[in-house]
Protein backbone atom coordinates (compact mmCIF):
# COMPACT_ATOMS: atom_id res chain seq x y z
CA UNK A 1 0.00 0.00 0.00
CA UNK A 2 1.43 3.39 -0.93
CA UNK A 3 1.48 6.09 1.72
CA UNK A 4 -0.84 8.13 -0.49
CA UNK A 5 -3.52 5.45 -0.51
CA UNK A 6 -3.15 4.88 3.19
CA UNK A 7 -3.63 8.56 3.80
CA UNK A 8 -6.68 8.58 1.56
CA UNK A 9 -8.41 5.78 3.43
CA UNK A 10 -7.74 7.45 6.77
CA UNK A 11 -9.49 10.56 5.55
CA UNK A 12 -12.62 8.82 4.36
CA UNK A 13 -15.41 10.69 6.12
CA UNK A 14 -17.06 8.65 8.85
CA UNK A 15 -20.64 9.50 9.60
CA UNK A 16 -21.78 8.48 13.02
CA UNK A 17 -24.91 9.40 14.84
CA UNK A 18 -24.06 11.36 17.93
CA UNK A 19 -24.98 9.33 21.02
CA UNK A 20 -26.64 10.81 24.08
CA UNK A 21 -23.94 12.45 26.19
CA UNK A 22 -23.00 10.62 29.37
CA UNK A 23 -24.92 12.05 32.38
CA UNK A 24 -22.65 14.12 34.62
CA UNK A 25 -23.10 11.86 37.65
CA UNK A 26 -21.84 8.83 35.74
CA UNK A 27 -18.69 10.40 34.36
CA UNK A 28 -16.12 10.11 37.16
CA UNK A 29 -17.10 6.54 38.21
CA UNK A 30 -16.97 5.59 34.52
CA UNK A 31 -13.50 7.13 34.18
CA UNK A 32 -12.29 5.09 37.17
CA UNK A 33 -13.57 1.92 35.50
CA UNK A 34 -12.09 2.93 32.16
CA UNK A 35 -8.71 3.61 33.81
CA UNK A 36 -8.61 0.00 35.01
CA UNK A 37 -8.97 -1.37 31.48
CA UNK A 38 -5.99 -3.54 30.61
CA UNK A 39 -4.96 -5.03 27.30
CA UNK A 40 -5.42 -8.46 28.87
CA UNK A 41 -9.04 -7.60 29.73
CA UNK A 42 -9.64 -6.29 26.22
CA UNK A 43 -8.23 -9.43 24.63
CA UNK A 44 -10.33 -11.74 26.79
CA UNK A 45 -13.57 -9.87 26.38
CA UNK A 46 -16.65 -11.22 24.72
CA UNK A 47 -17.30 -9.93 21.21
CA UNK A 48 -19.21 -6.69 21.53
CA UNK A 49 -17.51 -5.54 24.71
CA UNK A 50 -14.94 -3.39 22.92
CA UNK A 51 -17.57 -1.66 20.73
CA UNK A 52 -19.57 -1.01 23.92
CA UNK A 53 -16.52 0.52 25.57
CA UNK A 54 -15.88 2.69 22.51
CA UNK A 55 -19.53 3.73 22.49
CA UNK A 56 -19.24 4.86 26.12
CA UNK A 57 -16.06 6.72 25.22
CA UNK A 58 -18.01 8.57 22.54
CA UNK A 59 -20.82 9.38 24.98
CA UNK A 60 -18.26 10.76 27.36
CA UNK A 61 -16.18 12.79 24.84
CA UNK A 62 -19.39 14.08 23.20
CA UNK A 63 -17.60 15.15 20.02
CA UNK A 64 -19.38 17.34 17.48
CA UNK A 65 -20.42 15.12 14.53
CA UNK A 66 -18.09 16.98 12.15
CA UNK A 67 -14.99 16.68 14.33
CA UNK A 68 -12.16 14.80 12.60
CA UNK A 69 -11.43 12.88 15.82
CA UNK A 70 -14.64 10.86 15.28
CA UNK A 71 -12.78 8.77 12.71
CA UNK A 72 -10.03 8.03 15.20
CA UNK A 73 -12.58 7.04 17.83
CA UNK A 74 -14.43 4.75 15.40
CA UNK A 75 -11.13 3.04 14.52
CA UNK A 76 -10.65 2.12 18.19
CA UNK A 77 -13.08 -0.76 17.74
CA UNK A 78 -10.33 -2.50 15.81
CA UNK A 79 -7.48 -1.31 18.04
CA UNK A 80 -7.43 -2.72 21.55
CA UNK A 81 -3.84 -1.49 21.98
CA UNK A 82 -4.88 2.11 21.37
CA UNK A 83 -7.81 1.81 23.78
CA UNK A 84 -5.41 0.51 26.41
CA UNK A 85 -3.10 3.49 25.79
CA UNK A 86 -5.96 5.93 26.36
CA UNK A 87 -7.01 4.02 29.48
CA UNK A 88 -3.50 4.15 30.88
CA UNK A 89 -3.22 7.92 30.37
CA UNK A 90 -6.53 8.33 32.23
CA UNK A 91 -5.15 6.06 34.95
CA UNK A 92 -2.05 8.22 35.40
CA UNK A 93 -4.25 11.28 35.71
CA UNK A 94 -6.58 9.62 38.25
CA UNK A 95 -3.64 8.26 40.24
CA UNK A 96 -2.37 11.83 40.57
CA UNK A 97 -5.86 12.85 41.77
CA UNK A 98 -6.04 9.97 44.28
CA UNK A 99 -2.52 10.67 45.56
CA UNK A 100 -3.05 14.47 45.63
CA UNK A 101 -0.13 14.98 43.28
CA UNK A 102 0.53 17.50 40.53
CA UNK A 103 -0.27 16.39 37.00
CA UNK A 104 1.00 18.07 33.87
CA UNK A 105 0.29 17.32 30.22
CA UNK A 106 1.76 18.75 27.06
CA UNK A 107 -0.63 19.36 24.23
CA UNK A 108 0.40 18.55 20.71
CA UNK A 109 -1.92 21.14 19.19
CA UNK A 110 -5.52 22.13 18.94
CA UNK A 111 -7.85 25.04 18.64
CA UNK A 112 -10.71 26.66 20.47
CA UNK A 113 -13.67 27.83 18.45
CA UNK A 114 -16.21 30.38 19.55
CA UNK A 115 -19.31 30.20 17.39
CA UNK A 116 -20.84 33.57 18.28
CA UNK A 117 -24.08 32.75 16.43
CA UNK A 118 -24.73 30.07 19.06
CA UNK A 119 -24.15 32.34 22.06
CA UNK A 120 -27.22 32.26 24.20
CA UNK A 121 -28.97 29.82 21.85
CA UNK A 122 -30.40 26.52 23.02
CA UNK A 123 -28.48 23.34 22.15
CA UNK A 124 -24.99 23.14 20.74
CA UNK A 125 -22.00 24.61 22.43
CA UNK A 126 -20.89 28.11 21.50
CA UNK A 127 -17.39 27.34 22.73
CA UNK A 128 -15.82 24.12 21.55
CA UNK A 129 -12.34 22.67 21.66
CA UNK A 130 -10.82 20.85 18.74
CA UNK A 131 -8.01 18.71 20.03
CA UNK A 132 -5.42 17.59 17.52
CA UNK A 133 -5.13 14.06 18.88
CA UNK A 134 -7.39 11.67 20.70
CA UNK A 135 -4.97 11.46 23.64
CA UNK A 136 -5.15 15.24 23.98
CA UNK A 137 -8.95 15.13 23.84
CA UNK A 138 -9.16 12.34 26.44
CA UNK A 139 -6.85 14.10 28.87
CA UNK A 140 -8.39 17.53 28.43
CA UNK A 141 -11.98 16.30 28.81
CA UNK A 142 -11.00 14.20 31.84
CA UNK A 143 -9.32 17.21 33.47
CA UNK A 144 -12.36 19.39 32.73
CA UNK A 145 -14.72 16.82 34.22
CA UNK A 146 -12.64 16.34 37.35
CA UNK A 147 -12.38 20.08 37.85
CA UNK A 148 -16.08 20.65 37.28
CA UNK A 149 -17.10 17.93 39.71
CA UNK A 150 -14.79 18.31 42.69
CA UNK A 151 -16.97 16.28 45.03
CA UNK A 152 -16.78 13.25 42.72
CA UNK A 153 -13.09 13.86 42.04
CA UNK A 154 -12.37 13.60 45.77
CA UNK A 155 -13.95 10.15 45.72
CA UNK A 156 -11.32 8.87 43.32
CA UNK A 157 -9.14 6.99 45.77
CA UNK A 158 -6.55 4.30 46.12
CA UNK A 159 -7.39 1.21 48.17
CA UNK A 160 -5.78 1.43 51.63
CA UNK A 161 -4.94 -2.29 51.60
CA UNK A 162 -1.19 -2.38 50.83
CA UNK A 163 -1.33 -5.48 48.66
CA UNK A 164 -4.05 -3.86 46.49
CA UNK A 165 -3.59 -0.07 46.08
CA UNK A 166 -6.13 -0.19 43.25
CA UNK A 167 -7.97 2.95 42.12
CA UNK A 168 -11.65 2.95 43.05
CA UNK A 169 -14.58 5.32 43.17
CA UNK A 170 -15.77 5.65 46.77
CA UNK A 171 -19.50 4.99 47.11
CA UNK A 172 -19.38 6.44 50.63
CA UNK A 173 -17.55 9.53 51.86
CA UNK A 174 -15.43 7.52 54.35
CA UNK A 175 -14.73 4.45 52.18
CA UNK A 176 -11.04 3.58 52.25
CA UNK A 177 -11.00 0.07 50.73
CA UNK A 178 -11.95 -0.85 47.17
CA UNK A 179 -14.32 -3.59 48.34
CA UNK A 180 -15.28 -6.19 50.94
CA UNK A 181 -12.32 -8.45 50.20
CA UNK A 182 -9.76 -5.78 51.01
CA UNK A 183 -11.71 -4.44 54.01
CA UNK A 184 -11.93 -7.99 55.42
CA UNK A 185 -8.26 -8.65 54.77
CA UNK A 186 -7.30 -5.53 56.71
CA UNK A 187 -9.77 -6.32 59.53
CA UNK A 188 -8.39 -9.82 60.02
CA UNK A 189 -4.80 -8.52 59.96
CA UNK A 190 -5.73 -5.98 62.64
CA UNK A 191 -7.44 -8.73 64.64
CA UNK A 192 -4.34 -10.91 64.48
CA UNK A 193 -2.13 -7.99 65.50
CA UNK A 194 -4.10 -7.16 68.66
CA UNK A 195 -5.39 -10.59 69.61
CA UNK A 196 -2.12 -12.27 68.72
CA UNK A 197 -0.34 -10.12 71.32
CA UNK A 198 -3.01 -10.95 73.93
CA UNK A 199 -2.68 -14.63 73.21
CA UNK A 200 1.11 -14.43 73.51
CA UNK A 201 0.73 -12.76 76.91
CA UNK A 202 -1.69 -15.48 78.07
CA UNK A 203 0.70 -18.21 76.93
CA UNK A 204 3.55 -16.52 78.76
CA UNK A 205 1.53 -16.43 82.00
CA UNK A 206 0.62 -20.10 81.65
CA UNK A 207 4.27 -20.99 81.04
CA UNK A 208 5.42 -18.98 84.07
CA UNK A 209 2.81 -20.66 86.31
CA UNK A 210 3.95 -24.07 85.12
CA UNK A 211 7.63 -23.32 85.78
CA UNK A 212 6.85 -21.88 89.25
CA UNK A 213 4.81 -24.93 90.16
CA UNK A 214 7.82 -27.08 89.33
CA UNK A 215 10.63 -24.94 90.76
CA UNK A 216 9.10 -22.82 93.54
CA UNK A 217 7.89 -19.25 93.47
CA UNK A 218 11.21 -17.42 93.93
CA UNK A 219 12.77 -18.38 90.62
CA UNK A 220 13.11 -15.62 88.04
CA UNK A 221 12.06 -16.80 84.62
CA UNK A 222 14.19 -15.53 81.74
CA UNK A 223 12.25 -13.63 79.14
CA UNK A 224 12.83 -14.47 75.55
CA UNK A 225 14.01 -11.48 73.58
CA UNK A 226 11.19 -11.93 71.08
CA UNK A 227 7.61 -12.76 72.01
CA UNK A 228 6.47 -16.14 70.71
CA UNK A 229 4.78 -15.83 67.34
CA UNK A 230 1.04 -15.20 67.67
ZN1 LIG B 1 -8.40 -3.17 47.40
CATH architectural type of the largest domain: Orthogonal Bundle
Share of β-strand residues: 5-15%
The total strand number stands at 4
Radius of gyration: 28 Å
The level-1 CATH class of the largest domain: Mainly Alpha
Query: What compounds are bound to the protein?
Result: zinc ion
What pattern of helices and strands is seen along the backbone? Answer: HHHHHHEEHHEEH
The total count of helices amounts to 9
Reading side by side through the largest sheet, how are the strands ordered?
Answer: 1-2
Helix content: 40-55%
Q: What's the overall average pLDDT, rounded? A: 85
Summarize this structure as a short list of keywords or feature phrases.
binds zinc ion; two-stranded antiparallel sheet; elongated; two-stranded antiparallel ribbon; Jann2411-like fold
Question: Mind explaining what this structure looks like?
Answer:
The protein has two domains: 10-178, Jann2411-like fold (Orthogonal Bundle), CATH 1.10.3300; 179-230. 18% of the residues are buried. It has helices spanning 3-10, 24-35, 39-43, 49-61, 69-75, 80-98, 134-148, 150-153, 180-215; strands at residues 110-114, 127-131, 156-158, 167-169. The protein is elongated and about 100 Å long. Strand 3 (156-158) and strand 4 form a beta hairpin. Helix 6 runs parallel beside helix 7 (134-148). 52% of the residues lie in helices and 7% in strands. The strands form two sheets. The chain has a two-stranded antiparallel sheet. The chain has a two-stranded antiparallel ribbon with strand order 3-4. With 230 residues, the chain is mainly alpha-helical. The chain contains nine helices and four strands; from the N terminus they run H-H-H-H-H-H-E-E-H-H-E-E-H. The model is unreliable at 1-13 (pLDDT under 50). Zinc ion binds at residues 159, 161, 164, 166, 177-178, 182.
Amino acid sequence: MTPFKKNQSAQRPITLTRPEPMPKGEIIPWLVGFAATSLQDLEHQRPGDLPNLVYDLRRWLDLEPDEPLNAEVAALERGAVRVQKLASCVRQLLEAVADHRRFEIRYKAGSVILDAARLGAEGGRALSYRDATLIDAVQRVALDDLYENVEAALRVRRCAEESCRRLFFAARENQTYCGHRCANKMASRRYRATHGAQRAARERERYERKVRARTGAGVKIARRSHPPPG
